[in-house]
Structures are given as structure tokens and as C-alpha cells.
Design brief:
- One of its GO terms (molecular function) is mechanosensitive monoatomic ion channel activity.
- The chain is mainly α and 141 residues long.
- The protein folds into 2 domains: 49 residues; 88 residues, no CATH class.
- The protein is 70% helix and 10% strand.
- The chain contains 4 helices and 4 strands.
- A hairpin with a 2-residue loop joins strand 2 and strand 3.
- Helix 2 crosses helix 3.
- 8% of the residues are buried.
């Protein structure tokens, strides 16, 4: 659930550096992801759903007008199958970008921690330091 929360924050807020990296990586991966969705994922999903061809899913609003074998007006169609494929492309790319940026942020945080090591003082040493400070104050008065 934490990853989903972080993904929502990334998708909604995101800073400019993260978005620039996202655009570059998204562009680089878009052809691979599109091929993955179109050539592997959608045919498998279509097969599971009963041999559905998502590319063929459409609603015809107006049929084409043809006279003497020449198309005068092309058909007007809502190709929602292509929209579903594009939506799945987007989700896969967004999750990949999110995971890459999450990894980069983790590396950035780790390198900052190494530059600024915080040495934890044990409780007994802190207590001894407080006693020392109190004794110094008593000697002054």
C-alpha cells in the first residue's frame, strides 16, 4: 500500500527533475512497452477473454459513404480497443518510470547519508556529559 501512496504522490506532485527524467525514460521505453502490450499482453488477454481482438473493438457512429467504388466520406468510428491498449501502455510506462525514480531517490538519499554520517551517542555517555555540565556549573557558583 505504501508503494501505491508513493505512486499517487509522484503522479500528482512530482518535481521538475523527476518529470524530466520521466519524460526521457518514458520516451526511451515507449516503443518497447508498446510492442510488449500490442504483441504479447493484449493477444494473451484477448485469448483469455474469449478470442477478443482489441484492435477491432469499435463503435461505428456513421458508416462510410461510397459511390461507384470511391469513398466519398469515411466512416466515423470510436475505436475504444485502441484506447484500452494505449491506456495499458501508459500504466506500464508510468509504473516503470516510478520504479526508476524511486530507485534514484533511494540512491540519492543513501549518498547524502554517507556524506553526513550521524553518530549516535549512547544514552550513558549523554548522561555522563549532563553530569559533567552540572558539576561545572556548581563549581562556578
Amino acid at each position: 500500500m505504501k508503494i501505491i501512496k508513493e505512486f499517487k504522490e509522484f503522479a500528482i506532485k512530482g518535481n521538475m527533475f523527476d518529470m524530466a527524467i520521466g519524460i526521457v525514460i518514458g520516451t526511451a521505453f515507449s516503443k518497447i512497452v508498446t510492442s510488449l502490450v500490442n504483441d504479447l499482453f493484449m493477444p494473451l488477454l484477448g485469448s483469455i477473454l474469449g478470442n477478443v481482438n482489441f484492435k477491432a473493438l469499435k463503435i461505428v457512429l456513421k458508416n462510410e459513404v461510397e459511390q461507384e467504388g470511391v469513398i466519398i466520406q469515411p466512416a466515423i468510428e470510436l475505436t475504444y480497443g485502441n484506447f484500452i491498449q494505449t491506456g495499458i501502455d501508459f500504466l506500464i510506462i508510468a509504473v516503470c518510470i516510478f520504479l526508476v525514480i524511486k530507485g534514484l531517490n533511494r540512491l540519492r538519499t543513501k549518498s547524502e547519508d554517507e556524506k553526513n554520517p550521524k553518530v549516535a551517542t549512547p544514552k550513558d555517555i549523554e548522561l555522563l556529559a549532563e553530569i559533567r555540565d552540572l558539576l561545572k556549573e556548581q563549581k562556578r557558583t
